[in-house]
Amino acid sequence: MSKIKVWNLNNLSEVHGRRFLLQPDSLELYFHGRRSILLSFPPPAGEKAESVVSQVYKRLVSTCGSSLKIHFLFHPGKHVARAKLTDDWVNRKISNFEYLMHLNYFSGRSYNDLTQYPVMPWILADYSSASVDLTNPKSFRDLSRPIGVQTQGREEYFKERYAGWHDDEIPPFHYGSHYSNPGFVLWFLVRLEPYASSSLHLQGGHFDYPDRLFWSVADAWLGCTTSSNDVKELIPEFFYLPDFLLNRNKFELGSTQNGSRIDDVVLPPWANESAAEFISINRQALESEYVSSHLHHWIDLIFGYKQQGQPAVDATNVFYYLTYEDKVDMSSIADPHKLNATTSQIANFGQTPRQLFSSPHPKR
């Protein structure tokens, strides 16, 4: 017998249009107390992706419209402007963290969907010193550049890849991987449930090889800034949740090839072996004056005008074409094998957020 769940619409406060597998066929409902659910409404064969969800959305708005704080189905950028979130951020009425989380929500990122988990930037670039100076620009990553091209040599490599790409079906790209996908989220959160169980399911009942697990913050940073296949950004937990760095569940994660046992995540020296201190300093770095005056550049890359088109090319910020929502219409794919392959690609290898801004983002 299938389970039936009931939600009280009297407690509904927000309705956000969402995508599932890059198709605009879903809604995320927010209730008072910030409880939320993500619902997908696949269309009948041959109909547009938004055919069913549009009807559900109209019914919800007609029923609950007067009590809804926010509701939208399409064009989330207009609703960011309407809510005056950017003005609030520029005028320091909300923090950097709060603003980035708002942009994540409006662009379709959700804790309810591992394929579109909220994305946050690497902030610091120093993971080896005994202390970190948050007034020194050299302590920080370059927020005007994608994480994959923090050095000139890396930028040249990816630009050459883009220029040398020739394929009749697949457009050129700088990165074959993405800065956020389900595997990366589970990689970071492997020490916490329910993500540990999801990791086990993904790996066929066992954890990944120890050398491939998230075992060190410094090693993770090194991989993202030196490997051509690793361009992952961070998740919000890096700025508020020490628990994900600790193996309190005592999972047997194995030992690396050099014999080091994998347990709690190895932290940079400036964290003084304290997960709480690491989170505190990382959050202070996010809210620092340096980041406040440069964060608009990263927003341009992830949510803004440098996300697509020629500005993305110029910024070395083009990803594989199936990470963008306007590049594929699933309902038009008749071949079941091609449909399965496309679905798997979109589900597992990253999805670019919805674009919220079409012009340079204002500086704080």
Overall description:
Keywords: Repeat, WD repeat. This is BEACH domain-containing protein. Residues 74-364 form the BEACH domain. The chain is of the alpha+beta class and 364 residues long. The protein folds into two domains: 1-74, Signal recognition particle alu RNA binding heterodimer, srp9/1 (2-Layer Sandwich); 94-348, Neurobeachin, Chain: A, domain 1. The protein has twelve helices and four strands; from the N terminus they run βββαβααααααααααα. It has helices at 51-64, 76-82, 85-90, 96-106, 152-163, 182-188, 195-202, 217-226, 275-286, 289-302, 309-314, 336-348; strands spanning 12-20, 23-31, 36-40, 70-72. A four-stranded mixed β-sheet has the order 3-2-1-4, covered by helices on one side. Helix 6 crosses helix 7 (195-202). The radius of gyration is 21 Å and the shape is globular.
Beta-strand proportion: 5-15%
Q: What are the secondary-structure elements, in order, as H or E?
A: EEEHEHHHHHHHHHHH
Largest sheet strand order? 3-2-1-4
Question: Rough shape?
Answer: globular
Would you report the number of β strands?
Answer: 4
State the domain count.
Answer: 2
Q: Can you tell me the CATH topology of the largest domain?
A: Neurobeachin, Chain: A, domain 1
Termini, distance in Å? Answer: 54 Å
Question: If helices are DSSP runs of H or I spanning 4 or more residues, what is the number of helices?
Answer: 12
Q: Percent of residues in helical segments?
A: 25-40%
- Overall average pLDDT: 94
What's the CATH architecture of the largest domain?
A: Orthogonal Bundle
